[in-house]
């Protein structure tokens, strides 16, 4: 049974930093593209960052502020978020995707106060 468990969310002031973690189990972690998505209040879920085959891609809104990384030995993907803005407030979800499977975590709330 595949599980993705996010942690590290919370309340932070604008300009602050948070580091999200997503621990995966029940899957061969290295075989999956790993991504972070977010869903702001009242809006649709959107891609934040993804790591695939050694490359990374970011939404324009977070480029230069967020960094995605993965540790295949620990089956964990991270999202380092710096210079946070109130508009970064959202539920952040971890995603694991292969050609055949698509898994989601339960989400972690990030709230940035102005």
Q: How is the main sheet built?
A: 7 strands, mixed
Number of helices: 0
- What's the shape? globular
Structural class: mainly beta
Q: Helical content, roughly?
A: under 10%
What kind of oligomer do you see?
single chain
Give the H and E element order: EEEEEEEEEEE
Unreliable residue stretches: none
Strand content: over 45%
What is the CA-atom radius of gyration, in angstroms? 13 Å
Structural account:
This protein has 114 residues and is mainly β. It has no helices and eleven strands. The strands form two sheets. Strands 2, 4, 5, 6, 9, 10 and 11 form a seven-stranded mixed sheet that branches. Strands 1-3-8-7 form a four-stranded antiparallel sheet, with no helix packed on it. The N and C termini lie far apart (40 Å). The model has no long low-confidence stretch (mean pLDDT 97).
